[in-house]
Amino acid sequence: MKYASEFRDPKAAKAILAAIARAADSIGATRERPVHIMEICGGHTHAIFRYGLDKLVHEGVEFIHGPGCPVCVLPMSRVDECVEIAERPEVIFTTFGDAMRVPGTKRSLVQAKAAGADIRMVYSPLDALDLARRSPGREVVFFGLGFETTTPSTALSIQAAAREGLTNFSVFCNHITVPEPIRALLDDPHMTLDGFIGPGHVSMVIGTHPYDFIARDYRKPIVVAGFEPLDLLQSVLMVLRQIEDGRAEVENQYARVVPEHGNPVSLAAIADVYERRPSFEWRGLGEIDASGLRIRAKYAAFDAEEKFGIGYAAGPRHVAEPEGCACGAVMTGRIKPPACPHIGKGCTPETPLGALMVSSEGACAAYWQYGGVRAAAE
Questions:
Q1: Whole-angstrom distance, CA of residue 118 vs CA of residue 346
Q2: E strands within 77-134?
C-alpha cells in the first residue's frame, strides 16, 4: 500500500518548500519578524519535529506550539481528583495510557497504582464498559479526557450503559473544546499570531465552521491540516498565500477526511449526553468560559463527579503549578520548550515536572524525542 508514501514524496516536498520560501520572502519584505503560525494540535507538533519541518521551512516562518494537547492542559487539581477516585477500594479506575504519568500535587496515577490502587489502562471507553459488565461488584470509572475527537466515543459508551441499565459504570468527565481557547489566545495582547494550522482529528468531528470566528472576527487565516509532511507543508503555504493576498479565510487542506459540517452521528451523541460547563480551568490559560463539557442531568447516574461528590460537584479548586514549571508558558506559545531551565534536567519523561513531557502530544516530549533535548541530556 503506497497511500502514505504519496504524502511523503521528497520531490513534491522540495517544490512546496520552494513556494513557501518565495511567499515568505514576499511577506518578509514588509515586516521585521517571521510569520508566526500556530499549530493548534499536539499531533501536528510531533509531526513537525518528527519530519524536521521546523528546520526545512524558510526562516521567515516560525511555528508557535499551541494548547492542542488535552492531557497537557488538564490542571493538576483534576489529576488529584482522579487519584482520589482511584484510591477508593470499591473503584476500578480506567484511563488512556498517556494520562498515567501526568503528575498531580502528590502523585500520578501510575504512582497510585504502584501504591495499590486498581488502575487499568484501556484503549477505549468501550473497554471500561465491558469491564463494568464483567465486574458487577465494583465501581468502574472511566477517565473521560480529550477534545472533540474522543468526546463521541465516551458519549456513546454512556448511552450504551444507560440502555443496559449498568449501575456500576461512570465517567469522570474532562472533555474540552478547541474553539474557546483559540479565542482566549487571540484576545491575549501578548500574543503575536499571524495564522493557524487547524486540528485535523477534531475537525473530522466538528467540521470547519466552528473556526469561522477566527477569520471573521480576528482577520486571521486558518487551514485545517492532515498529519503527513506534505499535508503540513501545503497548509503552511496556504496560510502564507492568504496573508500575501490580504485574505482571512477558513480553508480545508484535509478535505479527504474532514467534512465541512462534521460527523452528524458524533455531533448528535455529543449533544445528547453533554452540556457546556459555565467555565473550566485550563493549565496555563486559567478559567475559560464554556470550554468544558459536563454530563447532562438525565445521565447523572453515570457522572463520577455526582456519584462520588468530587470535582466541580464539590466546588472547583485551584492548585498552583510546581515552582519553575513552564508548561503554561509553552502551551500558550510564549516560549519554546528549550527556554525552560528544567527541560532535560529536573524534567524528563521518567521524572516529569509537567504534563508536556509525558503526553504523546506534548511539545516538550516532541523536543525530547526529536529536537535534540534527549541527546543533550545524555
A1: 29
A2: 91-95, 119-121
From the list 334, 342, 359, 352, the residue with the least C-alpha distance to 64 is 334
The H-assigned helical ranges of 198-275 are: 200-206, 212-218, 229-245, 264-273
- Core vs surface per residue 251-269: b (16+ CB within 10 A) or e: bbbbeeebeeebbeebbeb
Which residues partner with 140 through β-bridges?
A: 92, 169
End-to-end CA distance of the chain: 38
Ranges of each domain in the chain: 76-177+261-314
The pTM (predicted TM-score) of the whole model is 0.90
Per run of 10 residues, the mean pLDDT along the chain (length 378 residues) is: 79 97 93 93 93 95 90 88 96 94 89 97 96 97 96 98 97 96 91 95 97 98 97 98 97 97 98 96 87 97 95 69 77 82 83 78 84 68
* b/e code 22-33 from CB counts within 10 Å (16+ = b): ebbeebbeeeee
What CATH number belongs to 76-177+261-314?
Answer: 3.40.50.11740
